[in-house]
Amino acid sequence: LFVTMKLLHPAFPSCFLLTLLSLWTTASETHAVSTGTPAISATSFLQDLMHRYGEGDSLTLQQLKALLNRLDVGVGRDNVTWPPEGPRNLSTCFSSGALFAAHNLSDQSRIGRSEFQDFCPTILQQLDSRACASENQENEEDEQTQAGGPSPVEVWGFGFLSVSVINLASLLGVLVLPCTKKAFFSRVLTYFIALSIGTLLSNALFQLIPEVQ
After folding, report:
1. Where are the transmembrane segments (predicted)?
2. Fewest beta carbons less than 10 Å away: which of 35, 89, 99, 159?
3. Distance CA 65, CA 76 (A)
């Protein structure tokens, strides 16, 4: 039969092979489309975050704070004082409360998709500036400690004042001289001698105990 069809139509084998090849290619493409991964849209990432950290399509303030803590964002201190005027340094590790206040978020706020999209640039800025990194956080605390410390004039002034008060206190012993001829002086002197011995002994013990341990 094949020989007969070949005699009737010499191009039949070539057409038959081309037909089989086209059918096999179409079946392969259909199988790839049916078994392939679904297309990723721009909202897929937002939906994933909402699903993992939120409830449905919204986040509570505590859930958003948990996300910030996971990213090491918003871990700054709340009691940092800022100058009332002038631009603020945005490369500073802000606290979560300061970030929420910048977006007018309260404890009862529900963060939807639009609010979360508005909050995302804040997270990206803090991550990009690396303000909340451990080394930057330590440097920032050192700078704030130095900025809030006393000036050299205050240090030397209060130092001289305290030394002067201590030296003047030693002159109070002059007031005891008129009491040396009184009857109760010997008893008071015995009490102060016992007090001084106890103070020196306890001081020595408290200094030696840590050395023994």
Report:
1. 155-177, 189-209
2. 35
3. 13
Query: Whole-angstrom Cα distance, residue 23 to residue 13?
Result: 16
Residue with tokens 């008129």, as numbered in its chain: 178
Q: Regarding predicted confidence, which is higher, 179 or 9? A: 179
Alpha-carbon distances of 82 from 25, 90, 136, rounded to whole Å: 69, 12, 18
Residue whose pair of structure tokens reads 């015995």 in the numeric block: 190
Cα–Cα distances (Å) from 91 to 13, 20, 70, 88, in that order, read 75, 66, 19, 9
Q: At 77, is the secondary structure helix, strand, or coil?
A: coil
Please provide the size of the chain in residues: 213
Question: What's the confidence (pLDDT) of residue 15?
Answer: 56
The two tokens of residue 65 are 């704070």
- Confidence at residue 83, expressed as pLDDT on a 0 to 100 scale: 52
Q: Do 67 and 49 form a contact (C-beta atoms < 8 A)?
A: yes
Question: CA 32, CA 180: separation in Å to the nearest integer?
Answer: 111
Q: Could you tell me which residue, 19 or 198, shows the higher pLDDT? A: 198
Alpha carbon separation from 149 to 142, 143, 153, 154, 156 (Å, rounded) = 11, 10, 12, 10, 13
A 10 A CB-CB count for 100 gives 22
